[in-house]
Amino acid sequence: MSTVLEIWEAFANDYNDGRQRFIAQAQRAGAELSHYAHPTLSTPDGQPLTLDVARLGPADATRTLLLISGTHGLEGAAGSAVQNAWLASQTAQSLPPDTNVLLVHALNPFGWSHDTRTNESNVDLNRNFIDHAAPRPSNTAYDALHEQLVPDSWTATGRQGVQSAIQAFRDAHGADATFNAMASGQYRHAQGLAFGGQQREWSNLTLERILGEHLPHTERVALIDWHTGIGEYGEPFFLCFNADGSEEQQQAAQWWSHERVLGQRPHGLARPDYQGLVFRGVEAFLPGRKVAGAVIEFGTRGSNTSESLRLDQWLRFRAPQQADAARDAQLRHDLIDTFVPYSGIWRQSVLRHGVEITDQALHGLAQWN
């Protein structure tokens, strides 16, 4: 097997293609496959919306490498490609003893199939893993900005009005507070940015089911949740959410280097107080087990990705009121290119780094005592 697939072999053209490529690659690697279909929804062309899971290694292993793609819908094309490339690598055929690898493909299949980052309820899944029985986190700073963040029309004038509102908030409160307001998560505005939802979403419930069914014996977990949009172009950026100074954080730093893992500042700013992360969900679903790892991003447009977050919302909630198919198709391609650039240079870098990072986690997991 090759070390890294060619980009046209690893990267899919859309969700349906991505699903078939992942299944085929998992079968070639000898993985055991499981499928979790959404009970009511389908793709735009009527195909099943399915979260697919592949497991390599013994079911009763006490060490698990958990690899998740597609938390943010359309970003899944990159995470899926890395999963495919790793499955095709020699490492996938020679796992350490007492170790398995669980690949969760397209955690948010609706988002990928509909070319959006959010799910069927406009929920950002990476903000949905809170305790919904408790009072939800407040975000009064976002509340103050909400009405000004998505323009009525996607024109230079409309976008400039948004930028002016954001700049006024930044001037008053600072860049770190502005980033935190818009990225940490909010639970009041269902048509807003970083909406964490009012209940546990299907993907949230299904991930708990998957971990319960597949990892009853695991004691130590190395977690990678693949994302795009933060960091230098085509380069990995690590967001480790293990507690500072913890054994788990030190493990992640040993696997991937202290410089990459510790004290990271996304877009050069203080890390937001992210709420409801998938990372927290995995910890909650595996009580008593040790979970170390990171959200790993691949950089695209730097801080300019924030405008594409607003474009995603505009296409969903404003564009239908101003029908223009040609405009929307072009803007949709721009949105996709923001998070999964078509550039071969970017895609080659993602595959190279992604396979290496996966191997580092697997090797580190085997040494974790």
From TrEMBL:
Q: Which GO terms describe its molecular function?
A: hydrolase activity, acting on ester bonds; metal ion binding
Can you name the source organism?
A: Comamonas terrigena
What is the official name of this protein in its record? DUF2817 domain-containing protein
Question: InterPro entries in the record, alphabetically?
Answer: DUF2817 (IPR021259)
